[in-house]
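We modelled the chain as a single entity of 244 amino acids. Its sequence is:
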Amino acid sequence: MGSSAVAMGDVSSVDIMSELLRRFKCSSKPDKRLILIGPPGSGKGTQSPIIKEEYCLCHLATGDMLRAAVAAKTPLGIKAKEAMDMGELVSDDLVVGIIDEAMKKLSCQKGFILDGFPRTVVQAQKLDEMLEKQGAKIDKVLDFAIDDSILEERITSRWIHPSSGRSYHIKFAPPKVAVVDDVTGEPLIQRKDDTAEVLKSRLEAFHRQTEPVISYYAKKGVLAQLHAEKPPKEVTTEVLKVIS
């Protein structure tokens, strides 16, 4: 009995120490408010946890936040659910309100990474107004710039083994035998979203909506264009250089 109690005590003190060390490390970091913009497959999902960790930021993915607000039945969440139930889009003001609420969390003290928002210039303006009221502003907008043809090669060459989730890439990590899983020999499939047609329409929507947002931030002098076609490690180096 005694020994397990001691072990428990040790665990919590280790946790406390690592949390104190994290806070100490974080206290010396500058506040950062960042926006990541990029088409599907451009590598935002790979880089954002690294940035989050390095600068002690919180990650605000608007889709997740909306779902969380709806689940928690916050006043804004209730309004958002009403809109969704009627098949309407959640209004920009509501989304900005939900971001505003989320920013007050302890984990967002040093700033945030916004992903999936703003998608339009109007949203960008509303976000700026809200931040201005708090005496804050966007520090950097990271534009994961990448050629559509490279994205097509990245995404349409992905094949998945459905039961294990193992993934292959025809060019970079091909299976030993074409279109079958290395381990089981079962056939590989493509995700519905990973076909050229779906990608093409997603990219068209992205360019149509988001190009104006990119130029909006460029005019404000906070835009950094990344070479998102490079290997992830090189992109990370570039990202950290741009933010610092």
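As a brief sanity check on the tokenised model: The chain has a mean pLDDT of 89. Strands lie at 32-37, 58-61, 111-115, 140-145, 158-160, 167-169, 223-227.
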